[in-house]
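Reopening this one. Same input as before:
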Amino acid sequence: MSILLMALVAMVFLGVIGGAVALTVALVRSSRSQSRSAAVLHPGHTPTAPPGWALGHDPEVRLYRRMQHAMAPLYSVAITDGAFLDSRVRLELAVAQVGSQLMACSAADRSYAGAILPAIDAWITRLETVIPRILTGAPTAPTEVDELVTALPGVPLRGHET
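Same output, byte for byte:
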């Protein structure tokens, strides 16, 4: 009887250990998947953001995530209007360019990055106001997209800051 009881306890113990290992593997896979999806600015965009940006709190990382969240509503609607699609594609290209600038800023020293981050922040704020206007079909939305795309913040060259 005691051998049977010991075998039962051993099986329960092994089951608990196996369950813990399976849970750990599932959590690691989920974390990696979330990390990869956090690097994507918009569907179809090849992620170029470093994997550490998924959970980072640096100013560049927060701005990158704001752009992701701003662009998300453009993919949750089934609008096939040509003007809408054109605006979305133009914004995707602009957002990819600003994302590249943010990655360049994160690799630069803080004083250099500090010169461009306020301009990028202001640009993202404008992006956040233009996207709802596109989705509601505001008649001025195409003009606002034009203005936003042509007002992309530029990364100043060293020694040429204004």
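So the earlier flakiness isn't reproducible anymore. For the record, DSSP finds five helices and no strands in the chain.
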